[in-house]
Prior knowledge:
- By secondary structure, the protein is mainly beta.
- 15% of the residues lie in helices and 46% in strands.
- The termini are far apart.
- About 17% of the residues have low confidence.
Amino acid sequence: xxxxxxxxxxxxxxxxxxxxxxxxxxxxxxxxxxxxxxxxxxxxxxxxxxxxxxxxxxxxxxxxxxxxxxxxxxxxxxxxxxxxxxxxxxxxxxxxxxxxxxxxxxxxxxxxxxxxxxxxxxxxxxxxxxxxxxxxxxxxxxxxxxxxxxxxxxxxx
Length: 157
């Protein structure tokens, strides 16, 4: 075999191997398939009670995979529980699904957070730091402003 022909065959073999190696990974691990979480519209109405308050927010997932909110914590409260409202009855739940390409909304009269055993009563103008933990995604830290007890956001929640 001539030296030039051997070199050409080697080049074709390398090119073929590179093309084949690219086939296996196309589509696996693409960034759009993972959950992409963000939080907006968070607030706490100024509590009327000295030891308990409600909290509201919206978690948006722009990713292609659902996730699950599993716990909420804050240095401002001894405990934060998650509740849903069904037929006017409030029920504590252990987690909430954050759907792929969707939202989990906490609003007055619906899903909400209950801050229990408050270390001090939050006043309008304060900001409460809240940590949200998820089944798959890393935790998110949210600054939740304390609004007037009658605050009604323009977003409807």
